[in-house]
């Protein structure tokens, strides 16, 4: 069966969208990735582009006709897959090597069909300011889950967009360079959380890229800092499973993380982190 609109298939609409405050939109796909769109007076800022299915640009342009600056929170394909709908994309240097690497054959096909597969990459770094006209956004470097992660602080709406570095489900700390020891990644994550906590007076809510938006910061920041410290001290409370959120703990299943080996999940209050289990 043929569908005239690339964003409608047999399951219905591919994307959902809602406005949470004036000029602040969240877009979602069927994997429940959260992409965010900040609409200023002169231009709009799109934070992440999903896996690249359907016509994501059409959804964005159904919200605003302003020029759109596309930014990736980090270089994983569930955040960069739709980049090729635009000619120019902004990301940090550490995000570049992963940005064009699909996780599956299906995603590769979506990517190959994009009009700007060779989109130009512009680099963002810690402290950069993006002025949308009536909305000002600051770039904060927070690499732990991925080497290129940035947070985006919308100083006008008092929102902090944290990508995959902080969310209500579980932060994955096994998907970075496998040669890095867990202790190094965890201590970097802790430092990043402390950096965000130090800016706490500048935002009211956290908007992650998966599992929950908007989040009240005090519910999460201190718990993540405490959990990182417990992981470093070897005192973290290990949970019996990875609590759902889309993948299984054991390597005998078919999900994309299974082949990486058995994982553990540690929790402290609202904070939850999944990492590769140490070999005995
Ligand atoms: Zn990621």
Describe it.
This protein is an alpha/beta fold and 280 residues long. The protein has one domain: 4-Layer Sandwich (Metallo-beta-lactamase, Chain A). It is 20% helix and 28% strand. The chain contains six helices and 18 strands. The chain has helices at 56-61, 77-80, 96-99, 105-112, 182-198, 217-233; strands at residues 8-9, 12-13, 16-21, 24-28, 34-39, 44-47, 68-71, 88-92, 120-124, 129-131, 136-141, 150-154, 159-163, 171-172, 205-208, 237-239, 263-268, 271-276. The strands form four sheets. A seven-stranded mixed sheet has the order 3-4-5-6-7-8-9, with no helix packed on it. Strand 10 and strand 11 (136-141) form a beta hairpin. Helix 5 (182-198) runs antiparallel to helix 6 (217-233). It is globular. The termini are far apart. The mean pLDDT is 90. Zinc ion is lined by residues 74, 76, 145-146, 164.
Give the SSE layout:
Blueprint: E1 8-9, E2 12-13, E3 16-21, E4 24-28, E5 34-39, E6 44-47, H1 56-61, E7 68-71, H2 77-80, E8 88-92, H3 96-99, H4 105-112, E9 120-124, E10 129-131, E11 136-141, E12 150-154, E13 159-163, E14 171-172, H5 182-198, E15 205-208, H6 217-233, E16 237-239, E17 263-268, E18 271-276
Parallel strand pairs: 6-7, 7-8, 8-9, 13-15, 14-18
Antiparallel strand pairs: 1-2, 3-4, 4-5, 5-6, 10-11, 11-12, 12-13, 16-17, 17-18
Helix pairs in contact: 5-6
């Amino acid at each position: 069966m043929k569908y005239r609109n690339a964003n409608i298939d047999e399951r219905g609409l591919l994307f959902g969208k809602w406005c949470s405050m004036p000029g602040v939109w969240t877009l979602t796909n069927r994997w429940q990735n959260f992409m965010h769109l900040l609409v200023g007076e002169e231009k709009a800022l799109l934070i992440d582009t999903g896996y690249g299915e359907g016509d994501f640009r059409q959804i964005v342009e159904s919200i605003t006709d302003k020029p759109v600056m596309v930014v990736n929170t980090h270089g994983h394909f569930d955040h960069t897959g739709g980049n090729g709908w635009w000619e120019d994309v902004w990301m940090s240097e550490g995000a570049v090597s992963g940005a064009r690497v699909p996780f599956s054959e299906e995603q590769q096909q979506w990517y190959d069909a994009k009009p700007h597969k060779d989109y130009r990459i512009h680099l963002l770094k810690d402290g950069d300011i993006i002025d949308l006209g009536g909305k000002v956004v600051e770039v904060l470097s927070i690499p732990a889950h991925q080497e290129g992660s940035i947070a985006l602080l919308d100083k006008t709406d008092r929102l902090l967009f944290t990508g995959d570095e902080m969310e209500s489900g579980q932060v994955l700390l096994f998907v970075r360079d496998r040669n890095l020891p867990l202790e190094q990644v965890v201590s970097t994550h802790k430092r990043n959380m402390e950096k965000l906590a130090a800016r706490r007076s500048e935002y009211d809510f956290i908007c992650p890229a998966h599992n929950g938006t908007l989040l009240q910061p005090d519910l999460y920041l201190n718990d993540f800092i405490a959990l990182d410290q417990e992981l470093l001290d070897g005192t973290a409370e290990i949970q019996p499973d990875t609590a759902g959120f889309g993948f299984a703990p054991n390597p005998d299943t078919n999900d994309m993380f299974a082949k990486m080996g058995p994982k553990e999940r540690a929790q402290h209050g609202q904070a939850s982190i999944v990492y590769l289990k140490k070999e005995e």
